[in-house]
User: What shape does this take?
Amino acid sequence: MDTKQPTLTTERSTLEPLGERHTEPIVRMFADPEMSRYFPGDLTVRQNAEAMVRRRLAYSGPPELGHWVFLRDGVVIGLGHLRPSWELPGELPEIGWYLATEHGGAGLATEAGRALLHYGLNELGLDSVWALVHTENAPSLRLAQRLGFLRVGSGVHYGQMWHHVHVALPGRVSGKRPDGTGSLTPAVGP
Assistant: This one.
């Protein structure tokens, strides 16, 4: 596929492909200790956060997939990905999200996750999208459920941390389209 990673929009935010210019805002965002709580390293340490961003910038998988920053009014408020998994077998497509603590609880992660999921399942036609969610990360577990993910197991992933394994399948996605209209679930005839 020759498609490049697109910019995605939601009702209140923009998901822009990750670029070098986003490094400093992401490092500042991860200076909040809460952002590292379910991450296998301490990203409050500047060098660790910079290395995490460099790893994402070095992504060399399918060009239509990758890493995005979540922008609200031009300000970086989050980071997400839809790319071949670094943990699951067979390069299964994996989704992930991080939202700055001060933006939590406003539905912005739901909008961003929904946009990435819609892009993967509806626009790219992926057979599935997988999510590995730390077993103690209650907000992300609720988000996966809101998005229509099915929990299919648990295991040790990403730095010896326990994660629940979730899958989203076409036709089982919950919610509205990324722009806030319509439904992501196909209509069923009478």
